Amino acid sequence: MSVVFSGSSASAYPIDCAILLCLSGGWPPSTECAQAKAEFVRRITPLPVEPPLQIWRCPMASTAQSEFSTGVTDRLFRVASDFSGSQAVDETTSGDFGGKQADIDISGSEFDFVRSVKVWSVEFFEHMRDPKSTDCEMIYRIGLGSYGQQGQFSWQRVKPYDVPEFVIPFKGCRDDNRVRAVGVEWTDSDGKRGTEVVNY
Predict the structure, then answer these.
(1) What does the pLDDT read at residue 88?
(2) Cis peptide, bond prior to residue 144, ω within 30 of zero
(3) Cβ–Cβ < 8 Å for 101, 148
(4) Which of 125, 131, 175, 194 has the most Cβ atoms closer than 10 angstroms to its Cβ?
């Protein structure tokens, strides 16, 4: 998919509409998608870790009342080009994202790419060896952030073996095996998987 923004709209569209559009297309090369991806990654850069896509900030309902007769991509292009700053957009920057969701129904399969986004927040992961035995204990605090049916973002606690290798490459017992990182993964609308990780 080729994503092109007009020069007149580039300074006016909400960044989350650009993230939504560029994410669905697999981050195609353009200045706008580069800026959108930079913001997507900045939000997971500790600390605090934010939802990388804040879909409730993209006012999709304000630009079309009909169904997606011309497709999701065309609908998002309309959002980007029609946005003039007059629509009510939630600009909350605090850590309270509970219950916020898209302003339209995104439960259809065309929005599966939104629900594919997962954030792996490894606050700490390491091993502690018992000096009197060969036992080795994992100590960790890890959260998984994911999106619900309508784009709601929520966290749950998970175990190290749930975390993909691009975030924790080695989970075996080793004294120097320490990880503090945030990783994000997604699948675009064509089914292509992508990942980013920030170690800290």
Answers:
(1) 35
(2) no
(3) yes
(4) 125
> In 3D, which of 57, 101, 103, 102 has the Cα closest to residue 80?
57
| 3-class secondary-structure state, position 41 | helix
* pLDDT tens-digit series, residues 118-175: 999 999 999 988 777 778 899 999 999 999 999 999 999 999 999 999 999 999 898 8
76: DSSP letter? H
Sign of CA dihedral 32, 37, 39, 40: positive
Sign of CA dihedral 34, 37, 42, 43: positive
Residue 24, classified by CB atoms within 10 Å of its CB into exposed (0-12), middle (13-18) or buried (19+), is: buried
The 8-class DSSP code of residue 161 comes to G
Give the global pTM. 0.81
Q: What does the alpha-carbon distance between residue 132 and residue 126 come to, in Å, rounded to a whole number?
A: 19
Distance of CA 101 to the CA centre of its chain: 14
DSSP for 22-73, written as a single string: HHHTT--SSHHHHHHHHHHHHHHSSSS---S--GGGS-GGGT--S-STT-HH
Q: State the Cα–Cα distance between residues 117 and 24, nearest whole angstrom.
A: 11
Tell me how far apart the alpha carbons of residues 51 and 31 are, in angstroms, rounded to a whole number. 22
Question: Which pLDDT score, from 0 to 100, does residue 65 have?
Answer: 44
The residue behind tokens 């995104």 is 106
* 5 has pLDDT over 60: no
